[in-house]
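ingest -> validate -> predict -> emit
validate: passed (alphabet ok, no gaps, 104 aa)
predict: started
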Amino acid sequence: MRLPDFIIGGAPRAGTTWLYELLDRHPDVYMAKPLKPEPKFFLRDEVYAKGLAHYSQTWFAGADTRKMAGEISEGMIFDLGYADGLTPVLAQPEKPVPNGTRAG
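emit:
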């Protein structure tokens, strides 16, 4: 069963889609697919109730075991924590990114 090595909790309009696309381009990273709908596995009780096997098969079935695997779900930054067995880590950028900045 393939599970993510990292989970990024996003917030609306915080650049999470841009970060997803950037990480997905990296040759050693597999990002959860499909992007839409986002997994939100730890946020939605009806999805969480289906179990880790469902989570793995739905979003990480194509993940190469030699790559890091990850997911980004908007809203997780507000509702992720120790009760889920995960340790939240926040990153603070040195400078704010201007609204409308695009990758590529």
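Residues 6-81 form one domain.
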